[in-house]
Design goal:
436 residues, nine-stranded parallel β-sheet, three-stranded mixed β-sheet, 43% helix, binds beta-D-glucopyranose
Amino acid sequence: MTSAAQNVSRRQIVKGVAALAGASLLPDAKAAPKTPSMLWGVSTSAYQVEGNNLNTDIWMLEQMPGGFFKERSGDACDHYHRFREDIQLFAKLGFNSYRFSVEWARVEPIKGSFSQAELDHYVAMAQACRDNGIVPCITLHHFSSPLWFARQGGWENPEAPELFARYCGTVAEKLGPLAGAYFTINEINLPPELARYRLNPAMAGLIHMQEMIQKATNQPNFSSMLIGDPAKVGPIFIESHKRAVKAIKACCSTVPVGMTLALRDHQAVAGGEATLKEIQATDYDPYFELAKQDDFVAIQCYSRVRVGAGGEMPPADGVEKTQTDWEFYPAALEESIRYAAAQTGKPVWVTENGIATEDDTRRIAYIREAMAGLQRCLDDKIRVGGYFHWSAFDNFEWNSGYRPHFGLIAVDRQTFVRTPKPSASLLGHYTLKSKV
Ligand code: BGC
């Protein structure tokens, strides 16, 4: 994205915020929700909400003494058992779609041996969505993999594309027309970013972690996407996506399929233009090319990252930061939608967007600004197929444990009681007018 384009976007945001100032906190109850043609949903991932995903590589990483996980996931939100009530709640809040992931380790607990009972579980989830007027949109890999897969080299194993495609085909065949869309790999473009992190001495722990697990498990090939060698994982991810799309299309040719991309709204500060181009060339360009073969480009954006001559910079002093230490920057949504649309010419699906905060009034402010940007994209006739907020629940935020609260719905960690926040009904009933 050019800095000129960003300046335009920022000016537009300021105008949008001014126009919205004075609007009441909650929308008019009679307001027509979203646009007729747009998926409007919440997003989760199996590992972060289901609980007890014991047979996965991440569960193993959590248990490692001296590892980088602040807390263990444990029961998470017990969504595995409570999905029916949860889906009813999403419908009641005004959403018409739900993005969730299938846990590969549950449906293929042993290499080549699929569990009909677990496949039925995900069919029941998709059916519960349909029964409540919700379109189920399904991610097939959201960071966690089966333990057997990690032991055999995970995403560094040249056999991975074939194994992943077989699993994806099995799920798609079982779900048939129940699924509204598939996303193969969540944030498939993370490897180049992880490769940069590994150059930072402060992140040496990542490499150390891989060695530690290999020794502790006596599995010299153990590899997981977050700790594996990004130079190997990157190309294998791309091949896995291609093979998975074929396997899904072979049984469900009309269901839209894509992958999701992490878009961190990289912006050059003076002197950072060339470095920005280098980052775009590794983190985005090859994936936008890949997305051109798909039915849509799915993006996940939360904030911006400024880029100087020396690389990515932390948020500027004095800016508002969220619980994850990211800048409060809702304009990232509009800027990322425009960028992905311009680069691919494909309809854009926003599969994650949100903030971690204890203060729901800040989430509301973020949503209002982000929605104003989304509306401007629609006004400019950019095709946006769906918006899924991250996240439905205050859930397990990977190595940060349960502290960062991304949820529209709070979850009591002892009783699992769900309490929707004001932001949940604001967003569920948000009105957008589509010009597309
Ligand atoms: C991931 C989610 C994560 C969120 C917030 C995204 O990168 O897909 O699993 O919880 O960011 O960190």
